[in-house]
């Protein structure tokens, strides 16, 4: 696949993901997944990564960059969630966003580091909005959050308010899991909740506030009351 071919494919993806009709957005998701996972995935990812790395500091990301693609996907997720009041939102959108973020941070595919800094704050805000409101996306978005936290540098682009909300959310998830069973059983969900909470504790964007410290102590007290 030549760079001209890749550029043409990206433009088609951007066009479809920007469409007002759900069917076209779904086609864009399908095409994007094919290019991210198919035989041309490395060439595709490296092309986008080079375009992203070549951006000047004050230059807005264009359509052939990871940040632009992620903004489109976030908008697609929002449209899918808002349009699915009587059904579960289609998981393909969440899974595709997860895959894009993984690819953009994988040096095997990109050859570059920290390509998502221009949209890191946006992504963390979006993660919080989805985790608190869309239960069916919890697994994929929890995975996205852990992936970004492991990169560490991204944490400094997370608003402290969002960080505090995420800590409280996962404390509550662990506590609720214990409350529902009468004990803290190591199910897959609970293990991932605890792992996410650990990564949050290890990667704060700034010092803990007194209010957060107090909530963390109360949260652990509630959790440990169910530990046998």
Poorly predicted parts: none
SSE sequence, one letter per element: HHHHHHHHHHH
Gyration radius from CA atoms, angstroms: 19 Å
Mean pLDDT: 90
Strand content: under 5%
Percent range for helical residues? 55-70%
Structural class computed from helices and strand pairing? mainly alpha
Overall 3D shape? globular
Q: How would you describe what is shown here?
A:
Helix 2 packs across helix 3, helix 8 packs parallel to helix 10 (188-202) and helix 9 runs parallel beside helix 11. It contains 11 helices and no strands. It has a domain at 1-116. It is globular and about 60 Å long. It is mainly alpha-helical.
Secondary-structure topology with pairs:
Blueprint: H1 3-17, H2 22-37, H3 41-53, H4 66-82, H5 91-104, H6 107-110, H7 120-133, H8 138-150, H9 160-181, H10 188-202, H11 210-224
Keywords summarizing the entry:
single chain; 228 residues; mainly alpha; 69% helix
Give a summary of the structure in a few sentences.
By secondary structure, this protein is mostly helical.
